[in-house]
Prior knowledge:
Radius of gyration: 21 Å
Number of helices: 6
Structural class: mainly alpha
Number of domains: 1
Largest sheet: 2 strands, antiparallel
Order of helices and strands: HHHHEEHH
Mean pLDDT: 88
Amino acid sequence: xxxxxxxxxxxxxxxxxxxxxxxDVSETGVGHLNQGLLSAHGLDEGGDxxxxxxxxxxxxxxxxxxxxxxxxxxxxxxxxxxxxPDEDQALLPHLPRAHERMILLLMNVLLIEVRAENTFxxxxxxxxxxxxxxxxxxxxxxALKLIGRIREDERIHVAxxxxxxxxxxxxxxxxxxxxxxxxxxxxxxxxxxxxxxHTVENPRLARTQQRVILEKxxxxxPEGAAILExxxxxxxxxxxxxAQLAPTL
Length: 249
C-alpha cells in the first residue's frame, strides 16, 4: 500500500532547474525528470489503473496470496504520512520553494527505496526458508520470482535517483540573494538531516509503535502471557545499530 502511493510520481512535474542552475542541465538526468524518469518510476510502483495494469502494489498482494493460499486478511493500517514532521517549513531558504520541494521529494524517495530494499531482502530470506510455507512451496517459488523483479526495478530507481541528486549537488545555483552557491553547500546539510531521520529517528519511533501492536496481538492468544515472556526474552541488550543504508551523493 505504501508502494501504491508511488503512483503519484506520474503526476509530478519537476520545476525548471535551468532557471536557477548555472550549468547546462539539458543532457543530465535532472533535465530528463519530466521526460519519462518520474512517470516510469510511478508506473513501476502503482501501475496504471486506466489500463488495468498493476505495479509493485499488486505484486505484493499477489505474493501474499501465493504464500497464504485461501486465507483472507484485513487491510493493514498504513501511516498517513511517513515524511519528517518539519517538511512543511522552508529547509532550503536560498532556493525557490518549488525547487526545494522537488529536491526534498527526490531525497525522501531515495531513502525510502533503500530502506525498502532491506525489507525486501528480509522477506526473500523468509520465503526461501524450507521450514516456512510448507503447504505452498510451489507458490513460494513464484513469489521469489516476483520479489526478484521488484528488487530489480528498485535497483534502477535507486540508480537514477542517486544520479539526479548527485548532479543537483554538483551544480552551481543562483540563490535568491543573487549570489552563487554550490550545490554541496546547499544540499549536504539537508541530506545529512534526512539520513538521520530515515535511519535513526523514524525506525526508533516505528519500533516503539509496532511493539505495542505486536504485544497486544500476542496477548490475544490463549497462552499469550507465556508467549509474550518468550518474545521479550529474545530482545537483544546490544544498543541499536544505525542502519548502514544511506547512499552517498
